[in-house]
Amino acid sequence: MPRLRLHPPGAGFVLQRCASPARPRVLPGLEWRSCHKIEGLVLVDRFSIRHSRLLIAVLVIVVLGVVAPTSGPPARAQELPWRDKGSPFGVVAALGNRVRADEIPAAVALMREAGIQWQREEIFWDRVQQQPGGPYDWDGDETGRYNYDLAIGAQAAAGINMLGLLDYNPAWFKGKNPHPDEWINDWGDYVYNTVARYGRERGQIKYWELWNEPNLAASGYESGLYTVDDFVRLLAVGRAAALAADPEARIVMGGLSSIWGEPPSPHHYDYFDYLERVGQLGGWRHVDVIAIHPYRPDAPEGDAWRRDQSLTFTQELQRLDGILRTYGPKPVWLTELGWSTNRGWPGVDEDTQAFYLVRAYLHAIAHPSVEKVFWYDLRNDTRPSAPYDRPVYDPREVEFHYGLLRRTYPLDPARADLRKPAFLAFRTMTEMLGGLALQEVARNGEQGLYWHRYAGMGRRVDVLWRTGATSPVVSVACACREALVRAWNGEVRYVLASAEGRLSLHPGALGTPLYVEYDPPARRGYRFPATGHSLGGAFRAFWEARGGLARFGYPLTEELIEPEPGTGRPRTVQYFERARFEHYPELSGTPYEVQLTRLGEAALQREGVDWRSLPIQPDDPPECRRFPETGRRSCPPFLAAWEQAGGLDLMGLPLTEAMERRDEATGATIRVQYFERARIEYHPTRTGTPEVIQFGLLGYEQIARWGGMP
Q1: Helices 421-433 and 104-114, packing angle to 10 deg
Q2: What is the C-alpha to C-alpha distance for residues 578 and 694, in angstroms, rounded to an integer?
Q3: Please, which pLDDT band fits residue 177 given cuts at 50, 70 and 90?
């Protein structure tokens, strides 16, 4: 995707001056061979220039037509090895640059909630060193920004791996368009000191990305890298400095961005051409990892036109493989990838962003050469010049809406409007697939169906989605007892009991990933042989104290994380035959730490019954109690059962009067009454036994299915 990147953030304008009479001066669209008679400053509104380019461009791919002679033979072509997929789930958060010091703990808490394994921490050279040979400032400014010590330390303490990004020419040359000769030695000092501090001395970062998007004019040509040769030289000096500072350092080539919407310019390179030139110049030997930013204007499975051919995301990666075979196989990291939710082109709606996220990660993980994927970015951006506590929300600005989180102030994890659907999708993806390995791509677009199979750590999980108009049924010989089916956002859809070790599955709505976990293992506490699921902690204490098996039945699942309705906040839940438990740690030590879901109301909704429209009984027999909140009565024997089961706190208000129903199990007529959190049943054929009063199997009825999905 075209990017509206401002470097450094906080400066919407760049002052450009001739560095010396003999030094060429270049402005967007103009090239000056000499500056002998050029004096003064030129003020360039880079933000406006980039914005207007985006609006007028229509899928134009830029490529330089002249390729310089090679300066060394390429490595012998060879097949590509399958790469390490052990920790593929990354994001770009750049906490030091984008999050104020007082909000870094909240940001790290949200990253842990999402299951983020890697984060790209960008350390701006011009922010940590103000003068050539001068001291380095690692702990921020008076506004609480650029505190790299705090940001990096907090993430390391939370167990989050970091990719350090080192970029952009120094503060003393900003706006002067210097030749690399004037700052390349200082660049080596900056790399050395940064890697020494956070690598060798503190052991917090071992992977270092050198520069960012040098193939784009704004961060390449206009930032002092006038040729690809200059970039290769920067890599060589940076690698030498990094290894001198920390022999364990690993070097990632500065990420190269896709170009879909830039107008023609002699200073923009399609990243395939740029990589070819880096390889021809021998740059491969200076890096351990190749990084790309494969933004695209359509779905990951889309077939968008790219210069001289149309490419899906997978085909784009396959084309990259050809370059790897020519110059040597190296791991590929996608250090930026994302879709914006801005209004207008190229934005997508928030649900679509979430669907594309999961599908892009899965396609990338299934590709042999790709090791890690970094979603751009953690939180929606704002105008760099805007006050931190008064962000700009412009809904049409592309750059502001790539985040997993909406832009809020303050950054409060409890805030109801903070998490976008993409955040829920990321959190569910890492919960379902973290620690597992891809076993098979069972379907790869046939009939519009995609089916990836993962396993590891005693778990088996399939992911399915469709891009075609039909929803084909998939028959799975799972050799399993049951399967847990969850939606893209973590919501439980079904618990499927297999029919002789087989299940029938089909993907849901168009484009929405679906997770299927076979025989989820028991995790903690006592295991019930009847269902194979366990019960422990606060849920077990509540189950035992409030009625046990007769009231709640057996557990149908393990403890799970589901999104809280309306907010998306994570809520630990567990399904039982007759109830669904919800855990509220913020109420620990009170009677409300464990609460019951309103399954009674949900059951009526599934039956198409609006309890509010049911008639009100006018009389009030003395043995009954009327509840003015709903207008319903509860009479014997339901009233006594309601009181014994916990009354208002556990059962909730009555939603209906007592009514007759047919018992599906026996065919007998029974009487039932629905409450907010339960259904009480009176079985007259069992009069004189403990089973005359029962609690309906609302949990089972909601999620349990036999043989496959309905």
Answers
A1: 50
A2: 10
A3: confident
